[in-house]
Design goal:
Layout (H helix, E strand, L loop, with lengths): L2 E5 L4 H5 L6 E10 L2 H13 L11 E3 L4 E5 L2 E6 L9 H11 L3 E4 L5 H10 L2 E4 L5 H6 L1 E8 L9 E16 L6 H17 L1
Parallel strand pairs: 1-2, 2-3, 3-6, 6-7
Antiparallel strand pairs: 2-9, 4-5, 7-9, 8-9
Length: 195
């Protein structure tokens, strides 16, 4: 296990060196996207329309931030992660089409995400739930917002972050998935205990 400080854009070569259990701190661009933004982005791609933000080699954050406007400038109040498994059915296609390198959320993801991470060079990281204020402190600026018509939590917020973390890598680019491994281990132990 190592602690790494990465700056976007993040290359595939950098991502391929990262392993399960590593701790990351990200500086540069992180873009929020939840269910509705994932679906709209994939629809845009299908229809040949351009998505108004660039996820390529950046961090994708499963987050619905609380944001306020002061003097015509957006400020993030809290920015905790949302439960990532909701995006599982969309994440393979999203990673394939848009190329984010670091996906950040909470609660882990499944085989679709692990497969995409392996094929296209990405990692999934858990950020601590309940640390929304801490997350906001690492956000230096809201660079822009798109698709605000979806509502504040579902919009695409383009954030400039400085040492955003700690992020624990739970899926690496080999397709290893810590959450799946732990689930299997728990089932094995449970069977043993019950017998």
């Amino acid at each position: 296990m190592v602690t790494l400080k990465l700056k976007t854009p993040i290359s595939e070569e950098e991502i391929r060196k990262i392993k399960i259990g590593d701790i990351l701190y990200i500086s540069g661009t992180a873009i929020t996207a939840r269910d509705e933004a994932h679906m709209r982005a994939l629809e845009f791609h299908e229809e040949g329309k351009k998505v108004p933000v660039d996820f390529k080699e950046n961090a994708l954050y499963h987050c619905g931030p609380l944001v306020t406007k002061k003097n015509d400038k957006w400020e993030v109040v809290v920015a905790g992660p949302t439960t990532s498994i909701r995006m599982e059915i969309l994440e393979y296609d999203f990673i394939e089409k848009f190329g984010p390198r670091v996906i950040i959320g909470k609660g882990g993801m499944g085989n679709n995400t692990a497969k995409a991470a392996k094929e296209f060079g990405a990692v999934y990281c858990d950020y601590t739930g309940g640390a929304a204020v801490l997350a906001a402190k690492a956000i230096e600026e809201v660079e822009k917002v798109e698709w605000l018509d979806l509502g504040m939590p579902e919009a695409l917020w383009v954030l400039r972050v400085n040492e955003f973390g700690p992020l624990v890598v739970t899926i690496d680019s080999t397709g290893k998935n810590l959450h799946e491994d732990l689930t299997q281990e728990i089932e094995k132990r449970k069977s043993k205990i019950l017998s």
